[in-house]
Here is the input.
Amino acid sequence: MAYEITLLTAMGIAVIFALSLNLITGFCGQISLGHAAFYGIGAYCAAMITKSGLPFPLALAAGFLLAGAIGTVVGIASLRVRHDFLAITTMGVGFLFLGIVRQQDFLGGEMGLSGIPSSGLSKPAFMTLVLVIAAAVATFSIYLKRSWMGYVFDSVADDEDTARMMGIDVSRYKLVAFAMGTALAGLAGGLYAHNIRFIDPESFGFVESITVLAMVVVGGIGSVWGVILAAAVLSVMPLWLQFISDYKLLLYGALLFAVMRFSPNGMAGMVTAILRRSKTTGTGGKA
Amino acid sequence: MSVLLSVKDITVQFGGVTALENAGFDLQSGELLGLLGPNGAGKTTMMRSITGVVTPQAGEVTLEDRVITKLPIHQRVRLGLGLSQQIVRPFRSMNVIDNVTLAAGHAKTLSPLAALGHRQRDAERERAYELLQRVGIAEVAESEPSSLPLGMLKRLEVARALALDPKLLLLDEPLAGLNHLEAGRLADTIVALNQSGLSIILIEHNLSEVMRICQRLVVLDNGRNLASGEPRAVMDDPAVQAAYLGTAGKVEETADA
Here is the structure.
């Protein structure tokens, strides 16, 4: 049972993290290659707070707020640029985060932070907390997708220039997506830090950014259920199979490429295409 | 009548090329104005200076006594500009009616917070359907834009611009690429819109339709104002004919076109 609890907790945290990137990349169409930095900011912030003796809920809230605040600043600086530049800028932010953390003794430098206090919850209780938060984030995502904000995000992801012609303040909407997505990544980071109770810079490196992007893309850009499924599967596979853990960057990179090349709408897109094909004849999924 | 839009002494340069030089005109409220000129005269640049896609080096654009020259596109749209672009750009991830519904929801998309707080789309959808009927493509409301011919996409552009409840509708070559019948029908729709009180600026190469429907013309040539006034008088102007035909020799035979 203990093993299942560990798996489900890791899965739940991955789902929160993947859904946070889904708000930015899936809903709003902005590619981020440095999302793990915000996961890391949340993790380090929350860990420092419980290490200084303050309560766990406060640590989670602080990780959420700090990641969101830094995300907002990065967003203001980079969201005016075009899609492809944003990918490069966020990748830069990812490396900047690693560079800074490695040099700070109070953050444990290269060695990382160990001895992070317990959340005070039992393992099953912590798992329940993670799953409840994951369910709440999923519910929020589904709500958002159907709201006018989701509608506007669709238009921004489709064609920014035309969205402007519809009177939409594109930069502001992109910034909102970025702020929400980075704050939720910070929340996932705080949970991660108190689950593993040891963090080091490598836990939030480029590989993690690619892994979470793979979850969003494989699941199906913008599809909440697809992303949840992909996050759940891709997060536990390395725990089951040492082989996958060793070749994570290679495998997830290849997966990312294959999905982009052969089914750009991910698993969700494949399902939709199959459903559509069985319903009507002659009309396939669009590329 | 009051002046709705005033464009004064606009100069736009791209690198070393001057696209517009001290060009301008006024639009009266309720007018249907044709903006003409040969290829490269600066018509589209003029339109883009009005909508904000291009920022002029000099000059001023005023909408209802408010200077909008420095405002970003989306704010100009909020102040009452609706644009149908020369090259159709539907949102291809949405069907036809969703394209128009988004524009019809402009009150709900003003701020992200308001957008997050609202889910109901029924009223906007209804309005979108009315507009699709008005431009004559209600039967393809549920179709994907990718599956539609250009004539329908041009109408979709117009419906989407109308859904913004504009004070001024800017139409950049709405008839281009349409056959004779389609062009005539869309031109009739434009006249009907104008008669319902909407001010319209029309850029068009289809001279016969322009002569038929516009109340006044402004002609640009090489980025400068060449002529303006009542359509017949403008087209009879030798300078306009020279600009269009390159020579003044063939004036007689085309004057009745």
